[in-house]
Amino acid sequence: MTNEEIELLLKQALNLSDVHVRSEGTHFQVIAVSDDFADMSRVKRQQAVYAPLKEKITDGSIHAVTIKTFTEKDWKRERMFNMPS
After folding, report:
1. Which helix (H) or strand (E) element contains residue 67?
2. Is the dihedral of CA 14, 74, 68, 32 positive or negative?
3. Domains of the chain
4. pLDDT digits over 3-14, tens only?
5. Cβ neighbour number for residue 65 with a 10 Å cutoff
6. Is residue 85 pLDDT above 60, yes or no?
7. Please, which residues have CB within 8 angstroms of residue 53's CB and are 6 or more apart in sequence?
8. Among 2, 7, 48, 74, which residue's beta carbon has the most beta carbons within 10 A?
């Protein structure tokens, strides 16, 4: 799986205003931004992003995933600290 394929998968499944994916082999880091996260607990946010990736995790395309989620307001404040390099 490429970073772009994962970004597209997440954009199709979720109402994201922004998404960034970085990887090393089969280990992926995802930053997902959506105002839909505003009323969700941290666990529910993680589950929402994890769900569309579950098939790829099961088939071994993704071995590990780290997920960070932000609302658009939080992302404006946190972007400079969290942008993948």
Report:
1. strand 64-70
2. positive
3. 3-82 (3.30.300.90)
4. 999 999 999 999
5. 19
6. no
7. 6, 9, 10, 30, 62, 65
8. 48
User: Does residue 80 carry a pLDDT above 60?
Assistant: yes
| Position 79 confidence tier, pLDDT thresholds 50, 70, 90 | confident
Q: Find the helix or strand (DSSP H, E) in which 80 lies.
A: helix 72-82
**What does the block give as tokens for 78?**
């946190």
> pLDDT of 13-60, one tens digit each?
999 999 999 999 989 999 999 999 999 999 999 999 999 999 999 999
Q: What is the DSSP letter of 66?
A: E
CB 39 within 8 A of CB 19: no
